[in-house]
Amino acid sequence: MKTGICAQTFVFPGENSLLTNEVIPKVGCLIHINPRIALRPGVVLFYNNYGERDNLTNDDTSTTQEKIFYGIRLDVFYYFNPGKKVLLYAGPGGGYEQDNILSYEEGFQYRFDETSYILGYLSFGMEYLFSSSVSLSIETGVGYRWADRHYQNYSTTTKLITTDTNTYRNELYLISPTIGFTFYFN
Fold first, then answer.
1. Could you tell me which residues come within 8 angstroms of residue 84 by beta carbon, excluding any fewer than 6 positions away?
2. pLDDT of residue 21
């Protein structure tokens, strides 16, 4: 049985449809309970600060956004063919993720968006062992997400203009393919 440190990064737009065109890294630890069963607890973390562009004039606008995205996950995998150079696996997973966006519009207002996600998904993948200590994997899957969104709009004087709490959004989604590296140790 092996245990490994696993670093996995999206190579396509993030699996969360709200996060298109952003790369969301995942880092975790792969723990083999026996040759066929493995656990992968992990964390997700992303930060971005960017301005928007006017599509007609290609000029920067006065709107900027600051985004913080973080979460925890736990995957359980069943390996169909342990002991081979190319391993096939599948299993359920779940997690909690938080997405915070603070938007500023110069001279007018700012807005704070907070979305919490509870995730349930089924992943499947293939892992290629370069050696007994290094592997490359590709993984995809399908999931269901429960989202709870809260937002507040403020004027420049920090007076609350509007607020919306308890906006729920539930959806089935496809997990974009990911490429991951695992570094095993005994």
1. none
2. 44
